[in-house]
Design brief:
Order of helices and strands: HEEEEHEEHEHH
CATH architecture: Beta Barrel
Number of helices: 5
Helix content: 25-40%
Distance between the termini: 76 Å
Strand content: 15-25%
Number of domains: 1
Radius of gyration: 21 Å
Strand order of the largest sheet: 1-2-3-6-5
CATH topology: OB fold (Dihydrolipoamide Acetyltransferase, E2P)
Shape: globular
Oligomer: single chain
Length: 175
């Protein structure tokens, strides 16, 4: 084998090796992964860690009232803080689109194999359904949980005057 051929082979091997090594922040999480809760940001956002990496997770399929949206914003945040205390391990379950426009990881959160946090918030009446295709993996279950809360007049559905959806509140269309 000539020196030229050896160099060509070595160059090819290095190119393949370098292509496979991307920085940790650029790597995609597996469809299902675990992370440890650091803190609750609000009723639909959790800060967790995976190894040394911090991850801001936006719960898929729901929209909880904002922190300043009285009274349910604070209640949704408190509900999550009780359900997911700092240090608890949760399962991240991704769908088709991995991140939102703010760079947050979009995921369904599970406390175990049978308890989805997103559905728990809906069932407690502390969030509304917000299905955004292509992320529709659990759309039917989320809609069902929200319907249960509405029919039972739980949480924000207990207030007939609750008319300010979280999206409208963010756009300052209501208070």
């Amino acid at each position: 084998m000539s020196i030229a051929n050896s160099r060509l082979q070595l160059t090819g091997i290095l190119a393949v090796a370098l292509c496979g090594s991307t920085p940790a922040f650029a790597q995609r999480l597996p469809l299902i992964a675990e992370c440890t809760v650091r803190r609750i940001v609000d009723g639909d956002t959790v800060l967790c860690t995976r190894g040394r990496t911090s991850i801001v997770v936006r719960l898929l399929g729901i929209d909880a009232p904002e922190r300043g949206q009285r009274p349910y914003g604070a209640q949704a945040t408190q509900f999550l803080q009780t359900l997911l205390p700092a240090g608890s391990v949760v399962i991240l379950d991704r769908d088709v689109r991995e991140r939102d426009r703010y760079g947050r990881l979009l995921a369904y959160l599970w406390t175990d194999s049978a308890t989805m946090v997103n559905e728990d918030l809906l069932r407690a009446g502390l969030a509304v359904v917000d299905i955004q295709p292509p992320n529709v993996k659990y759309a039917d279950g989320l809609r069902s949980a929200a319907r249960e809360a509405r029919e039972a007049r739980t949480g924000l559905w207990a207030t007939p005057a609750f008319e300010c959806l979280p999206t409208d509140f963010r756009k300052k269309k209501c208070r």
